[in-house]
Design a protein that fits this description.
The complex is a heterodimer of chains A (about 525) and B (about 500). Chain A has about 525 residues and is mainly alpha-helical. In chain A, about 75% of the residues lie in helices and about 5% in strands. Classes of the chains: A mainly alpha (about 525), B mainly alpha (about 500).
Chain lengths: ~525, ~500
Amino acid sequence: MSEHLLSLMTFLPLVGMVILLFIPRDNEPLLKSFTLIVTLVTFFVSLPLAFNDAFRTSSEMQYTEFASWINIGGFFQMNYNVGIDGISLWLVLLTTFIMPIAVLSTWKAVPKGVKGFMALLLLLETAMLGAFISLDLFLFYIFWELMLIPMYFLIGIWGGKNRIYAAVKFFIYTAVGSLLMLVAIIYVYYYAIQSGLSMDGFSIAQFYMMEIPAGLQLWLFLAFAFSFAIKVPMFPLHTWLPDAHTEAPTAGSVILAAILLKMGTYGFVRFAIPLFPEALQTCMPYLATLCVVGIIYGSLVAMVQSDVKKLVAYSSVAHLGFVMLGVFALNLQGMAGGLIQMINHGISTGALFLIVGFIYERRHTREISEFGGLAKRMPILTTIFMIITFSSIGLPGTNGFVGEFLAIMGAFESGLRWYAVVATLGVILAAVYMLWMFQRVMFGELTNPKNAELKDLSAREIVIMIPLLIFVFWIGIFPNTFFDKMNPSLENLIDQVKGKQQVAMVQHVDAPEHLEFK
Amino acid sequence: MENLVQTALANVNFSAIMPSLILICFGMALLLIGVFSRRGRTTHIAWISIIGLVITAVYTYVDWMDAESHFGFAGHVAQDNFAVFFNIIFLVAAVLTILMSDDYLKREGYPINEYYALILFTTAGAMWMASGTDLMTIFLGLEVLSISLYVLAGLFRGDVRSNEAGLKYFLLGAFSTGFLLYGVALLYGVAGTTNIADIGMYLSAHKAALGNPMTIAGMVLLSTGFLFKIGVVPFHMWTPDVYQGAPTPITAFMSAGPKAAAIAAFLRILLLGLGDLQAEWSMMLWVLAVLTMTVGNFVAISQTNLKRMLAYSSISHAGYALVGIVAANEIGISGVMFYMLAYTFMNIGAFAVLVLAGKKGEENLTLDGFAGFGYKRPFLGVAMCIFLFSLMGLPPTAGFAGKFYVFAGAIKAGYIWLAIIGVLNSAVSLYYYLRVMVYMYFREPLEDYSWVKLHAGAVISIVLALLGVLYLGVLPDGVMEMAKLAFF
């Protein structure tokens, strides 16, 4: 059982999707509850991962599975090669955790085509889980591209007014990046063969052992980084994000913010950084600058938004800037901070989108100026919203504090000191735009008569929010539950990258700069 | 005299052209049956032609298992793995096309018996092009193929566009054949033979001949002829008009079968005959590949008629195929062969959806005509999406696998920039393929599409194409191994 746990978890939603296609389209309650059950079962299947103590001590991949998939003698071999370590563990669990919440949030929000909506959600879950567990670069690419298709339809069919523009922009931005990455993947593969490695498919463990000269690394790194930076998104490649987020239906925004954006940061940690450590060193000042610009710019733009959802979308740009800054710091504090901040962002921004969705379902508008004084009518919502806002700002005691503090501290202790100093301004700005928005929406006089009749959260909506609130405090107060399991893998990764960087400083890698055989 | 006849007959060896012979026999039988059938009754003829194709396919399969090359007609024809692989492509294209044709022809009011015989003849011509080892055999195959196609393109006598398509294709086709023949003549002048392998041997034995302007001119003119048939920029001008004017199933067929045939003959000539000129032709094709991909994709963006859009997209796909030819290594060439098969499935599948979606007189094939189509006709909508994703080159479809091998070939051969231009072009193509889906799913339906009937033949064709697209996408290794064995 446990040796196929990852496959079971990954393909369960896909099987669920196939069964779902046979449920009549009119039976909406059944369609919804079936999807909810599938995602819940998936979550419970993935739960044993969280209780495995092997992650505490070992940086090795766990639950590995291996099967030959495509094998064309002499050309290519692609394997079904999966496994997780402390880095992917929490992202996998975040995915299985967020999905039932996203499904539950659509109970009333999807006016048409429930069947298609649910089927796409399940397909998306398989693709996301597949990408997180892939240990083969080719397999990763397949899942990475597969994610695009359901998200494209989710935004395009169930989105807001500008949905077509947003969906096409989302698709093309992401696809352009990944196509260039594909070229780099093929190139790396041939380079690995040329340098005498016996490649077992596109296994990343073997790619890690490669020694690539600095000049070539730079190009390959840029191709990978471009693709991941679009997905993160890093400034200035972020412009698809506000459109996609604003137009997507609530469940789509939640998944997009909580999980899809993490694909980019995860891609950096798993592929771009360990494969091309020297190129990272060369690009570090520029990348860190982009992170900081993203933090400040995202915060400033968020401040002037009149649409709550757009505000949250821009705040994502800023938050992801902190994540990347921590990751690029390349020390344990920074990377652990970045990694936990990925989870935090998934929880708190996911929750913010849910809250925006709750309000939108009641009032069919998201303009801040339409609201004011909701606190009197909706005390429960106000309390929850308040906690999530604090978490998003990074108030001590909540999860956001742990992540941002560690990420900034890591950057401060590495060579990125001044970047960290400037980034800290972002924390203050976050407090400004979040609290200001919260104040305008929730406090003050209830002037708009349309808001006078608003109902507070229903039981279903409270049930959705409770798990998220639990994790806001759990990560905020006992972060070691999570750090303990990611540290061995992160330490190993950092040693590996730093080791390679030092070797490269001492001795020049004696290998050809390009492919030499035809 | 008698002796001469005997040696000639001994050299014949019909097994080398057996598949095409079966098709020719069936084709002629169909013409006879057509004479004795009542006017307007074509269904049985369609099914007989499919039986003929299936028998040929079985024979071809046996041929493949046999794994032995058959040579015939004094070295003019070779039924080797390479030819067999392409035969499979032609047969797939012909079967898928005929399946969707019958109801379409009746709807359009042209239930013509000869239609099916002509498709079989075209297929036979294509087979001769793939198995021809002599420039003359290839020319013969090309003519059989082209003449049948000229008729098929202009099949709808009462339709101006169809007439235009037939005439345009005929005039330009005849013109390009002239180039081809002139190239053959020049190469004959240099090497003293029209046998491809002999030309290759002559050129590698006489290095001085490589620098001879006549050789280069011969190569360029010969290439022009083939590039015209493949629809490579700047010889693509005929494609949009012909593709739009021809009956839709014929457009589907033309974009896959004859194109693959021209690529097959072109590959054999380039690799076996002009292998020593690789530096020259790969440079030429590099430029043409970039032009073809770019022009095809950028012009496709501005099309609003789906048939015309697919015509331009087929130009860009010819460009992707050229990338593999430029690479000219084992994976690149096998990649091209794989790609042609993949393209056959996905493109004919997409056209089959158009066949069903159109009204009489080929109306309603504009983007607006597809508004909300996916909701009203879920099966066709989903099928179309899968074909479009495959045309984009997204995993896990055949189009992705094909592009992957072709670009991998280019990267392995050191043509990094060509691969990068190729993938950027795929990115451009996303826009117009996605737009079809935007109309099908993201817009409210304007009509109820009540005229769309799910005819059995076309549906079978779509289902087969879907299976092909997904099978080649998820498990490409079997077919890729075949393509590898076919590489000479």
